[in-house]
Amino acid sequence: LAPRALTFSVTKNLAARSPQERDEILANPGFGKFFTDHMVDICWSEQGGWHRPRVQPYGPISLDPAAAVLHYGQEIFEGMKAYRHADGSIWTFRPEANAARMQRSARRLALPELPTDYFIESIKQLVAVDADWVPMADGTCLYLRPFMFAKEAFLGVRPAHKVAYYVIASPAGSYFSGGVAPVSIWLSAEYSRAAHGGTGAAKTGGNYAASLLAQQEAYDNGCDQVLFLDSREGKYVEELGGMNVVLVYKDGTLVTPDSKSILEGITRDSILQLAEDRGHKVERRNVSIDEWREGQASGDIVEAFACGTAAVITPIGLVKSNDFEIGSADAVAGELTMSLRQELTDIQYGRIEDRHGWLTRL
Ligand code: PLP
Ligand code: COI
C-alpha cells in the first residue's frame, strides 16, 4: 500500500511518574533499566498495511500465546539515542540510517518495511510526549528502542500476516559500568554469532539469543564482551555481541572487518567518516585474529576500540582466549580512540558544528 500520512492518536498516561520520581531515575539511569511513561505502536496487516498509529501509556503488551514471534522469533529492532543540547533542544543522530537499516532487517526477516517518514515520526511522537525524560547531565541521553514483531496467531511456518511495531524509550548513562575505561573482550572459540547466509547483518533478536551463552562465558572469564570470529573458518574478526570493532595501525590507518554477517554500525560508519575527514586512511577488509595478535605484539596495531550506539566508543584493553591474550586489562585508552569519541559526542550533544548534517531535531 502507498504510504499515507499517519495521524497518531495520543492517550496520556494518567499514572505517569511524578517529577520527583523521574528526577531520581534520571540522576542515575544506568542502561536499559528504566522506561518512560509512554510508548508508540503502529499495526500492520496484509490487507490494511500500516494503520492505527498510537501514543499510549507504557505498559504490558497483550499477545496471543500462538503469536508467531514467541515460536519462530520473527522480530527486528533498532537502537538510537535522543540527546539534549545546552539550550534544552532535543536531537537524534542519523535516524534515516536507522530507518534504512530497519527496512533491510525487515526484508531479511520477511517483515513489512516501515517507511522512513513513519519511523522518524514515531520517534518524534514519543519524544514529544516524554521530552522531560531526556536527561541533562553530561554523557546521558534517552535511548530509543524501535522494534517490530510477528503477532499473528498461527503455528504454520511462514511470514506472519499481522505485525506490530513499537517504540519504547529508556534514559541511559554509560553501557559499561566502568564508563569509558578500557574493556576486556573474551574470544569465543566454540560459538558463532551468525552463519554465512544467515541473519548476521539484520538487527534481529535471534542473533542476540545466539550470543548469550558466549556472553556468559565472557563474564565467567572476567570479560565485559564477547568477540566472534567468522563462522566458516573461525579465523576472521567479525564483531562483539553488541558492537563493531575497529583497529588503529601505527601509520594512522583504521581497519574494520568487512563481512556480510555483521551488523553495519551507524556509529562505526560515522567514526570512520570523521577519521577520513582528518586524513586517516580507512580500510574495510578481512582482519584475522592472527593479524590482530601479531600486529599488537609487534607494535603495528596501536589501538583497538568497540563502537555502537549503546557503547559509543569504548577502548578495548584486552582480548582473552583459552590460548592467548592480546593487550592487557590495565591498558590506557588510546589517544585517537578518545579524540574520535570526543568529536562524535561533541557533534551529538551540539557542542561543535554538525558539518555532515547528521542531527535531526525532535
Ligand atoms: N553490532 C551489533 C551486534 C550491535 O548490536 C550494534 C549495536 O547496535 C552494533 C554493531 C553497532 O551498531 P550502531 O552503531 O548502529 O549502534
Ligand atoms: C545498541 O547499541 O543500540 C545495541 O543494540 C546494542 C546492545 C548491546 C544494547
UniProtKB/TrEMBL annotation:
Where does the record place a coiled coil?
none
Any one GO molecular-function label of the UniProt entry? L-leucine-2-oxoglutarate transaminase activity
Q: Name one GO biological process term.
A: isoleucine biosynthetic process
Please tell me whether the keyword Repressor is annotated for this protein. no
User: Which family is this sequence assigned to?
Assistant: Belongs to the class-IV pyridoxal-phosphate-dependent aminotransferase family.
Question: Gene3D superfamilies under this entry?
Answer: 3.30.470.10, D-amino Acid Aminotransferase, subunit A, domain 2
Domain of life, per the record?
Bacteria
Catalysed conversion reaction: L-valine + 2-oxoglutarate = 3-methyl-2-oxobutanoate + L-glutamate; L-leucine + 2-oxoglutarate = 4-methyl-2-oxopentanoate + L-glutamate; L-isoleucine + 2-oxoglutarate = (S)-3-methyl-2-oxopentanoate + L-glutamate
Q: In which pathway does it act?
A: Amino-acid biosynthesis; L-valine biosynthesis; L-valine from pyruvate: step 4/4; Amino-acid biosynthesis; L-leucine biosynthesis; L-leucine from 3-methyl-2-oxobutanoate: step 4/4; Amino-acid biosynthesis; L-isoleucine biosynthesis; L-isoleucine from 2-oxobutanoate: step 4/4
Q: Which cofactors does the annotated protein need, by name?
A: pyridoxal 5'-phosphate
EC numbers, comma separated: 2.6.1.42
Residues where N6-(pyridoxal phosphate)lysine occurs? Answer: 203
Protein keywords: Amino-acid biosynthesis, Aminotransferase, Branched-chain amino acid biosynthesis, Pyridoxal phosphate, Transferase
- A Pfam family in this protein? Aminotran_4
The molecule here is called branched-chain-amino-acid transaminase
